[in-house]
Design a protein that fits this description.
Elements: H1 2-12, E1 21-26, E2 31-35, H2 43-50, H3 55-74, E3 77-78, E4 87-89, E5 98-100, E6 107-108, H4 127-130, H5 137-152, H6 162-171, H7 186-195, H8 206-210, H9 228-248, H10 260-266, H11 272-286, E7 293-294, H12 296-305, H13 311-321, E8 329-330, H14 331-338
Antiparallel strand pairs: 1-2, 3-6, 4-5, 7-8
Helix pairs in contact: 3-5, 5-7, 5-9, 9-13, 11-14
GO molecular function, one term: protein serine/threonine kinase activity
Organism: Actinidia rufa
Protein name: Calcium-dependent protein kinase 34
């Protein structure tokens, strides 16, 4: 897997908007990959820091992302793990280039080749991945999910559990009736529908997406600011995901960390007891003083350990997870958060789609 990742990164080096592999170095214990520095942070962080954006702004971002995917596909590469966290800003400038990163799950492919392994991140996995027969169309699906989130602040497929998320994806129903969708343009909804077509043969290709009237540079995406509620939901979604990542990186046995994306995929094959054991292990790791609570200080320590230290995240995470508002997270709150597919699900029962396998 590492060898193929290095080959893919070398293959893509020099392409615009793709993080470059600067070199590889091996010692007795590890292979070290030196990547291009992207100091501008994650895409969604930049959007939230800006405080406002429009459909036209979302169309511009999506255009860059789809151009990246078109480049990959034309060079025989499927990314297979497209999500907001894997798009970074090169620097902190207002007009910083956007760069795609994390090609750890990427593969070379030939025309007509089909893949069977289930990989990716839960919210963004295409239905054909779950059916174990897929090709490059999965990347378009993932970008369609990103576009949906950009426009309304929450993912199109979610539930109270990962099983529920996967069932919602297989069901394929995309909801356009709740706010802010009625006020969004017809073109935006049309593009989302065509990117989230459950039939990969009917789904748009990267070239077709770039030709859509809504996404074109001189296209029909309106320049009206999106409702502030979209940014609020986006902020909640980001905070919840960040805490899940911290929790699931907790060292299970001293021999390594639990990888977030591998854990999400693995839960498809784990029974309830296995998941409970993982959750308890993660909680114990974060609860450094074994008080039965995760405090602000312990959360700060975990963020530092995993290179995710950002003072703005702490209050967001605590406020989203701390149900009884006592300023700390107990085990029940921790488990409830880890099993939710979306921060709004508990407050909006009518919108739940938690059909279990």
């Amino acid at each position: 897997m590492l060898g193929e990742k290095v080959q893919i990164m070398h293959h893509l080096t020099g392409q615009p908007n793709i993080v470059e592999l600067k070199g590889t170095y091996e010692d007795k214990h590890s292979v070290h990959l030196v990547m291009e520095l992207c100091a501008g942070g994650e895409l969604f962080d930049r959007i939230l820091a800006k405080g406002h954006y429009t459909e036209r702004g979302a169309a511009s971002l999506l255009r860059t992302i789809v151009q990246i995917v078109h480049t990959c596909h034309s060079m025989g590469v499927i990314h297979r793990d497209l999500k907001p966290e894997n798009f970074l800003l090169l620097n902190k400038d207002e007009n910083s280039p956007l760069k795609a990163t994390d090609f750890g799950l990427s593969v070379f492919y030939k025309q007509g080749e089909q893949f069977k392994d289930i990989v990716g991140s839960a919210y963004y996995i295409a239905p054909e991945v779950l059916k174990r027969r897929y090709g490059p169309e999965v990347d378009i699906w993932s970008i369609g999910v990103m576009l949906y989130i950009l426009l309304c602040g929450v993912p199109p497929f979610w539930a109270e559990s990962e099983h529920g998320i996967f069932n919602a994806i297989l069901c394929g129903h995309v909801e356009f009736t709740s706010d802010p969708w009625p006020s969004l343009s017809t073109g935006a909804k049309d593009l989302v529908r065509k990117m989230l077509n459950s039939d990969p043969k009917q789904r748009l290709t990267a070239i077709q997406v770039l030709s859509h009237p809504w996404i074109r540079e001189d296209g029909e995406a309106p320049d009206t600011p999106l409702d502030n509620a979209v940014l609020d939901r986006l902020k909640q979604f980001r905070a919840m995901n960040k805490f899940k990542k911290v929790a699931l990186r907790a060292d299970a046995d001293g021999n390594g960390t639990i990888d977030y994306d591998e854990f999400i995929t693995a839960t498809m094959h784990l029974n309830r007891m296995d998941r409970e054991e993982h959750l308890y292990t993660a909680f114990q790791y974060l609860d450094k003083d074994h008080s039965g609570y995760i405090t602000i200080e312990e959360l700060q320590q975990a963020l530092r350990e995993f290179g995710m230290n950002d003072g703005r995240d702490i209050e967001e995470i605590i406020s989203e997870v701390d149900a009884d508002n006592d300023g700390r997270i107990d085990y029940d709150e921790f488990v409830a958060m880890m099993r939710k597919g979306n921060p709004e699900a508990a407050q909006n029962p009518k919108k739940r789609r938690d059909v279990f396998v």
